[in-house]
TrEMBL record:
EC number: 2.8.3.-
Pathway per the UniProt entry: Lipid metabolism; butanoate metabolism
Pfam families associated with the record: AcetylCoA_hyd_C (PF13336), AcetylCoA_hydro (PF02550)
Binding site for CoA: 219-223, 319, 342
Species of the source: Syntrophotalea carbinolica (strain DSM 2380 / NBRC 103641 / GraBd1) (Pelobacter carbinolicus)
Domain Acetyl-CoA hydrolase/transferase C-terminal positions: 278-433
InterPro entries assigned to the protein according to its UniProt record, in alphabetical order: AcetylCoA_hyd_C (IPR026888), AcetylCoA_hyd_C_sf (IPR038460), ActCoA_hydro (IPR046433), ActCoA_hydro_N (IPR003702), Butryl-CoA_acetate_CoA_Tfrase (IPR023990), NagB/RpiA_transferase-like (IPR037171)
Protein name: Butyryl-CoA:acetate CoA-transferase
PANTHER family attached to this UniProt entry: ACETYL-COA HYDROLASE, ACETYL-COA HYDROLASE-RELATED
Family indicated by similarity: Belongs to the acetyl-CoA hydrolase/transferase family. Butyryl-CoA CoA-transferase subfamily.
Function: Coenzyme A-transferase that converts butyryl-CoA to butyrate.
Length: 445
């Protein structure tokens, strides 16, 4: 049967497509920009007749309609693989939970641990001439989702960029059960916050450590983006990209001619990523761009892949770091913030890379409960999740300096970390370190 005939046969309304979902089902919404819109709205409209429908998603950029119905937890449970501010709100509402993971393992979770999914429904780019619906900028774990789904509903959005790559970045119409033509909503945009002087100072300290020909991974947040913007204005050249999340800073660097991937050990001349979220400028840059390589996350975040790329530079944010060198990047006490994501994979992979370096960056202080608090603390707050163990952490950077923790004993780590803490908190950190018997009293910072 011709692709056009098959398309016509499978095309239906959002209401008819979601009518197959019943109480107790597991439903998968995909990831980030790929979360459904029309079918989500249609499912929410059925809330009164449904209970215990369990939905998986992650990095929500808008509130799902199923979580906006009256008493949503009576009908739906939201399960987020990684949390945005929206996902945190859903958790606070009492109808959402986080699924702990190293992001690189997510495809394997679906294939080996999770088991069958009753329905998968998500947004895709329009079908191409070969009958493929591109997943857009979120190849991530989508093929694994589709392999486990009993029913697949694709929601076509004309605004979804077609991201090339050739590795699990699209699904064929023969594998799809229902096609819904949505209202083509504009893609949600994730705008970068204005850079602060602290962001700029941290970025300057990191950029001077980056050699020509380095391969970059940037995490989400102001500081990694600040590094990207500073690189775009620098004299660096022949840079490569192999990252979990593609952000606007990579576009800025590309347009300034800093990125060409010519020195990459693998995937030369290609910018490799698992998912993307940013501005319209970025989505336009990604669309049909042969330089872009959209890949599943078990390829992008594989420590073994990262390790073979020379001069790999990993740059990520943190919430807190304690004097032992333990990094928490996903919670503040028991208050969940984001997730492990790919940070640990890239911290480990970058260190193994020939010439590679991993950077954990954070401002020295934050405002919490109306008070200025140090982000460098004696021990992590009770309940805080350790994202990077003390044995894995390499460079730590604040606006007051940068230190390499590799090869340092507990007292050396303590001295190094206190040296980049805010001066107002150093004396108290020394007192706490003395109490914990990790201060040598060799000198005052």
């Amino acid at each position: 049967m011709a692709h056009s005939d098959l398309y016509a046969k499978k095309r239906t309304t959002a209401e008819k497509a979601v009518s197959i979902i019943k109480s107790g089902d597991w439903v998968d919404y995909g990831w980030c920009l790929g979360h459904p819109v029309a079918t989500d709205k249609a499912l929410a409209a059925r809330a009164k007749e449904l209970s215990d429908v369990k939905v998986r998603g992650g990095i929500s950029l808008w509130m799902p309609e199923i979580c906006a119905v009256p008493n949503p937890k009576k009908h739906f449970t939201w399960n987020a693989w990684h949390c945005s501010g929206i996902d945190r709100r859903i958790i606070d509402m009492g109808c959402g939970y986080y699924g702990p993971m190293r992001y690189s393992e997510l495809p394997r979770f679906y294939r080996e641990s999770i088991g069958p999914i009753d329905v998968a429904m998500f947004q895709v780019a329009p079908m191409d001439e070969h009958g493929y619906f591109n997943f857009g900028p979120q190849a991530s774990h989508m093929m694994a989702v589709c392999e486990q789904a009993r029913v697949i509903i694709v929601e076509v959005n004309q605004n979804m960029p077609r991201c090339l790559g050739g590795i699990e970045e699209a699904i064929h119409i023969s594998q799809v059960d229902f096609i819904v033509e949505g209202d083509n909503p504009p893609l949600a945009q994730l705008n970068s916050a204005p850079l602060t002087e602290v962001d700029k100072k941290v970025a300057e300290l990191i950029v001077e450590e980056i050699p020509n020909g380095a391969c970059l991974q940037l995490g989400i947040g102001g500081m990694p983006n600040a590094v990207g913007r500073l690189i775009a204005e620098s004299d660096l050249k022949d840079l490569g990209v192999h990252t979990e999340m593609y952000v606007d800073a990579f576009v800025d660097m590309s347009l300034q001619g800093k990125i060409n991937g010519s020195r990459k050990s693998i995937d030369r001349f290609r910018q490799v990523f698992a998912f993307a979220a940013g501005t319209r400028k970025m989505y336009d840059f990604l669309h049909n761009n042969p330089e872009i390589m959209s890949c599943p996350v078990d390829y992008c975040n594989d420590v073994r892949k990262v390790a073979v790329i020379d001069n790999f530079i990993s740059i990520n944010n943190a919430v807190e770091i304690d004097l032992f060198g333990q990094v928490s990047s996903e919670s503040a006490g028991t208050r969940h913030i984001s997730g492990t994501g790919g940070q640990l994979d890239f911290v480990m992979g970058a260190y193994v890379s020939n010439g590679g370096k991993s950077f954990i960056c954070l401002s020295s202080t934050c405002i919490r409960d109306g008070e200025v608090k140090s982000r460098i603390v004696p021990t992590l707050a009770s309940g805080s999740i350790v994202t990077d163990s003390r044995t894995c952490v390499q460079w730590v950077v604040t606006e007051f300096g940068k230190v390499n923790l590799k090869g340092k004993s507990t007292w050396e780590r303590t001295e190094a970390l206190i040296s980049i803490a805010h001066p107002d908190f150093r004396e108290e950190l020394i007192r706490q370190a003395q109490h914990m018997k990790i201060w040598r009293n060799s000198h005052r910072i």
